[in-house]
Structures are given as C-alpha cells and as structure tokens.
Design goal:
The protein is of the alpha+beta class. The chain has a single domain, classed as Cytochrome p450, CATH 1.10.630.10. 49% of the residues lie in helices and 11% in strands. It has a 5-stranded mixed beta sheet. A 3-stranded antiparallel beta sheet has the order 4-12-9. The chain has a two-stranded antiparallel sheet with strand order 6-7. β6 and β7 form a beta hairpin. It is globular, with a radius of gyration of 22 Å.
Length: 445
C-alpha cells in the first residue's frame, strides 16, 4: 500500500509546535506544501489532511466515512441526541423529521422575524455611538433563532440557553485540545462553570419541551414542528431528541451567522465601493421600506456579498472524518479509523480554485461566473449527509439583515483596528469589532 507523504517533525511532539504557533497558517500554509493529501502527527498518532475537492466529495458523501469519535463526543456531551452527535440511520431519521421546519413556506415566516428583529435592534442605536458588532450580531441572531424556535424573542429560557451555549463552546475548545492527547474511550467530564452550563442546558430545554407538550394551544413555531414531526413509518422524535434538536438549532443558528455578519461589516468598511453597489441595489429593490422574503430573489448582489464573506471567513471552517474501513483516496491508502482533517478555510483560499483568493470580490458569485468555481471547492455549509440543514435559513437571514442595515446605518472602523481571527469550533473575531454608528435614515416599524 502507498500511504500519503508525512511531514517531518519532532520525534516526541510531531507537528504540535507548528499547530500551536499558528493554527490557520498550519492548515493553509504548511500542510498544502505536501500535496493534496498528507500525514502529520500529534505526538505519535498519525492524522491525515486533505485539500482536494474531489477527495473531499468522496469523504463527505460516503456512508463509509463518519465524523470522528472525539468530535461526536464533545458535541454529544451537551447537545445530547441531536443531528450533531448521531451517525447513520439514526442521524438520517432525525434529519428527515426536521426537514419540514425548513421548507420554503416556513422560511417566509422566519424572514418576517429576521427583518423585524433587525429593525428593533437598529431602533436602539444612536448616531455617533460605538458598538461592538460581534456582540450586536450575537444578540441579534440569538433573538431571531429564539423567536423562530419558541415563538417569542424575550424568552428568559432562550437567554439562559444562549449564555450557557457560549460558556460550553469555550469549554469544548479546552476539552478538545486535551482529549486529542488522551484515549478516545475516556468519558467527557466538565467542571465548574462549564459543568453548571451543561446542567442549565439540559434542565431548561427539558422544562420547555415538557411545558409545550402539556399546553393545549399551538404556537406555530419550530418547537411545535419538532414535537409534531412524524416520519413515514409513524416514528416521532422522543423528548430527549427534541431537546437535542432545540440545542443544536440554537447552537448552529446564531453563532455561525453572527460571526459571518461581523466579518461582513468589517469587509464592507474596508471596501466602500462594494458597499455603494450594495446600497444602490437595496434602494432599487426596496426604496425606503424594509425588505421582505419577496425581495430576496432580487437582492442578488446582497447574496453575492454574503457568499463571498462565507468564502473568505467560513464560520464552519474545519471538519473531521474517519473511514469505517481501509480506504483509497486517489493513489493513497488511508487506514480504518484514521482521523482525517478538512480545512474549508484553506480550501476557500486555494488559488487553484479561486483567482485572487485573498481579495474580497463578490462578483465571483455572479450568475455568469458561478460555473467557474469548482463544485466541491466552495463548502461553507458542508456537504453530504451532514450538510447544514439550515443553509437556506442562513442565506436568507444574511441577505435580509444586510439589506436592512446597509440602507439605514454607516459603520466605520477605529483608526488602526486590525481583527484577530479566532478559529476553533467556529471562525470568528477574537478581539471584538468596535464600529462607530452613523444613522442614515430612521428604521421603519
């Protein structure tokens, strides 16, 4: 058998020093020098890295490849029985039950929530003040997904869950580094603040589900859809599974989009010509009124801007898979159970697939240019069975928030500000994004 080329490194540590020094640079700058597939070591354990769209398609669309045990363990330790922590038939069954919640007729209802919540946020902003766009976008997207889930944007439970999710994400980041070095059979044990956050998540979601089960009236929200979902064979989600899906939707539905929007405002502040073109489109499509779902097909440039932001700064920037049997990728063999890394951030920056990859060029996603992009080189929402179930929700949300805000506020950066990327579970901005607010026109109710 021919195995992928392996990086040279420390006999004891492997590639840990390079990884710790610059994680993003390790995936984007160092590993690709060894080809489309290579091996590296964490201590004595061999990992593999793939940066070839055709190999990635093979990995992400085959039932013979699953997420690594450590990633499922980390997420399952607080999300429970959700689409994030299941594989195979159980995962597909849960996903099938959830799919009606994201049909187009439901998206129209969610679109109303997206625009209304954005308008509510803008109504509290004052001309000349400074706002941290990371914090603001986190609050906004949590309000949107909370109202979509629970039918109210002021839910005390949703606020508690949101705070707990942020604590848990930080805990997972610490856990992941530790468990990379430990045997996979060890249980996940959390202490202190992270442990209390797990308890809040479990208890609060159980109370919400139990209360809704006992209620006599429907609220026409995502939670109602999850509780009433029924598969062709008559199966339904258990209460534990509903709790897991609620947490999964909250977890995936606010931080990823919030991080993308924060990067988007940074990019627009640095590229005024793009912002001017965007505003011209919004003015032509919407005039002085707030946008709606009916406007989304006509906000083409807004969609391009959002997609280009997802290319440069993909919130879901990294994935791991492992083969269930010895597998061949091109000319190389990958042994059963080996961890394989895929860096979407590096793939999106590969000059073989994107001309001027470091440049912010929304026009690359224009209809006449989209076919030039390799089908499997642009993966902001993943691929295959684990592709983000809410990808259309996220795209509509990005378009409508962008259109609502761009027409109504100017956002400028402090002199000398440089964002510090933060890449672990999601890809965001470590040092916040302070921006000065300039009110362009009143927000309409």
């Amino acid at each position: 058998m021919k195995y992928p080329p392996e990086m040279s490194g420390s006999f004891l540590l492997g590639q840990i020093p390079e990884f710790v020094k610059d994680q993003l640079g390790f995936y984007r700058g160092i590993l690709p020098k060894y080809g489309d597939i290579c091996a590296y070591r964490v201590f004595r354990k061999r990992h593999y890295y793939v940066q070839n769209p055709d190999y990635i398609q093979q990995i992400m669309t085959s039932a013979k490849w699953v997420r690594t045990q450590i990633s499922r363990k980390m997420l399952g330790s607080f999300l429970g029985e959700s689409v994030f922590s299941q594989e195979g038939a159980l995962h597909l069954g849960q996903r099938r039950l959830m799919q009606p919640a994201f049909h187009r007729e439901r998206l129209a209802h969610y679109a109303e929530i997206m625009v209304a919540q954005t308008a509510n946020m803008l109504s509290t902003w004052q001309d000349g003040e400074q706002r941290d766009m990371v914090d603001e976008m986190m609050r906004l997207t949590l309000e949107i997904v909370s109202q979509a889930l629970f039918g109210t944007s002021t839910s005390r439970e949703a606020a508690e869950i949101g705070e707990a999710l942020l604590i848990i994400q930080r805990g997972i980041e610490e856990d992941y580094r530790r468990y990379l070095l430990l045997p996979a059979w060890l249980p996940v044990i959390r202490f202190g603040k992270a442990n209390r956050a797990v308890q809040v998540l479990q208890q609060t979601t159980q109370q919400i589900v139990a209360a809704r089960r006992a209620a006599k009236r429907e609220q026409n929200d995502l939670l109602d859809l999850l509780l009433s979902a029924q598969d062709e064979d008559g199966s339904r989600l258990s209460d534990d599974q509903v709790c897991g899906q609620v947490l999964a939707l909250l977890f995936a539905g606010h931080e990823t989009t919030a991080n993308t929007l924060a990067w988007l405002w940074y990019l627009l502040a640095k590229h005024p010509q793009v912002l001017a073109k965007l505003r011209a489109e919004v003015n032509k499509v919407c005039g002085d009124r707030l946008p709606s779902m009916a406007d989304a097909p006509h906000l083409k440039y807004a969609e391009m801007v959002f997609k280009e932001t997802l290319r440069l700064h993909p919130a879901a920037w990294y994935a791991e898979r492992t083969p269930l049997e010895d597998t061949q990728l091109g000319e190389y063999a990958v042994p059963k159970g080996a961890p394989v890394s895929i860096c979407v951030y590096a793939l999106h920056s590969d000059p073989r697939y994107f001309e001027q990859p470091d440049q912010f060029i929304p026009e690359r996603f224009a209809p006449e240019n989209i076919e030039k992009i390799h089908r499997y080189a642009y993966l902001p929402f993943g691929l295959g069975a684990h592709q983000c179930i809410g990808n259309q929700f996220a795209l509509i949300e990005g378009q409508l928030i962008l259109a609502t805000m761009a027409a109504r506020v100017d956002l400028s950066l402090p002199e000398g500000y440089v964002p510090k990327p933060r890449a672990f579970i999601t890809y965001g901005i470590e040092n916040g994004l302070p921006m000065r607010v300039g009110v362009r026109q009143p927000t309409l109710a």
